[in-house]
Amino acid sequence: MEPENRLVARTLETRWEARLSALAEAEAALAAVRERRPALPDRDGLRALAADLPGLWHCPDTRDRDRKRLLRTLISDVTLLPETDRARARLGVRWHTGATDELALHRPRTSPQVRRTSAAARQLIARLGPDHSDAEIVTALADAGLTTATGRPYDEAAVGWVRHAFHIPGRCPFRDGEISVDRAAATLGITANAVYYWLTHDRLAGRKDTSGRWCIPWNAQVEAACRRQIDASGHLIPRTPGPCEVLPGEITVQEAAAQLDVPDAVARLGIPTTQVYYWIRRGYLTARRIRERVAIPWNQQVQTVCLHRAARTVTANFTTQTATAEGAV
User: Fold this and answer.
1) CA dihedral angle for residue 242, residue 245, residue 246, residue 248, rounded to 10 degrees
2) Structure confidence by residue, pLDDT tens digits, 39-82
3) What's the total number of domains in the chain?
């Protein structure tokens, strides 16, 4: 047992020496820090610093955390007071001594306010916009010494953005005898997408101006050629203006298909809605457009003719048909 006791004692002694060494090193480090730290000023020096707070605040040796501590030492709380002018702010300051002050200041401008186009530049662009190109306006702005809100010279992209932001119209891109895509679509009674398709697939002549807008040379021959394309198309249906409601004696295309959708017609002829639209496009059936629907003047005679036509155009899915005088099958 004695050797074991000696081993335990030696281990405890080693640990105690290590702790004493660490304590000595910590005391030495603390003493070094205290020696490097500047000595506190005397009472007169502290009074001089308190009397010159701005100098203490702006001193290069004063760190930000020292400024925060100084504020906490002097100020009890700060209150944001109501203010009707959003560009200004009012602050109430209560000091630890019990005194109060009120500060009025201007709020920092937001990024949109900083980057907002100046009134002079906006007025010049609005005055020249309808009759001058963007390149000409850029030259006029440079001659007037006007720059963007960020201080760079105006270019065509910046002028275009000002036009867009303030709804300033540009110079008319159309030459004599030219119209826009929307006007062509309205004239033909089709969608603008169909006109764009013709332009991009060389089915309709047109040119693009500097802004990328399509300009279409238009006359009676061009309109006639477009209408022939519509007639030859299997899916384009010209939209013609008409009353807002179906008149007495008329039904919609869906209702027409439903009336043809009698049991025998469906079972043996298979009349779909697309077949009715095809008859309208080919001129076999009179119809007019009402908003997004197509109305068909309808009576027993029209229904009989449609049933006869359906019987003649039936597909080869049915091998036998027998039509009666009344148009049934």
Assistant:
1) -110
2) 777 788 778 777 788 888 888 888 999 899 888 988 999 999 99
3) 4
Task: For residue 303, give the nearest of 272, 262, 246, 247 by alpha carbon.
Answer: 262
For 101, phi and psi rounded to 5 degrees?
-135, 155
119 & 143 share domain: yes
Label residue 267 by pLDDT band (50, 70, 90). very low
CA-based angle 217:220:222, to the nearest 5? 50
Sign of CA dihedral 293, 299, 302, 304: positive
Is 264 among the domain residues? Answer: yes
Q: Are residues 123 and 99 in the same domain?
A: no
Indicate if 104 and 119 belong to the same structural domain: no
Is there a single domain that holds both residue 122 and residue 99? Answer: no
Looking at the fold, whether 283 and 306 belong to one and the same domain comes out as yes
- What is the per-residue DSSP string for 259-294? HH--HHIIIII---HHHHHHHHHHTSS--EEETTEE
The parent domain of residue 196 ranges over 178-232
| 230: CB partners within 8 A, 6+ apart | 188, 190, 236, 238
pLDDT in tens, 16-36: 888 888 888 888 888 888 888
Burial of 260 (0-12, 13-18, 19+ CB in 10 A): buried
Residues 145 and 97 both lie in one domain: no
Beta bridge partners of 95: 75
- Give the domain CATH number at 216: 1.10.1660.10
Residue 7 covered by a domain: no
Whether 245 is in a domain gets the answer no
Q: How far apart are CA 257 and CA 279, in angstroms?
A: 12
Distance CA 288, CA 296 (A): 7
For the chain, the first-to-last Cα distance in angstroms comes to 122
Model confidence over 121-150: pLDDT tens digits?
Answer: 989 998 888 888 888 899 999 999 999 988
Confidence (pTM): 0.37
204 pLDDT higher than 50: yes
Q: 145 or 246: which carries more pLDDT confidence?
A: 145
Residue 257 three-state SS: helix
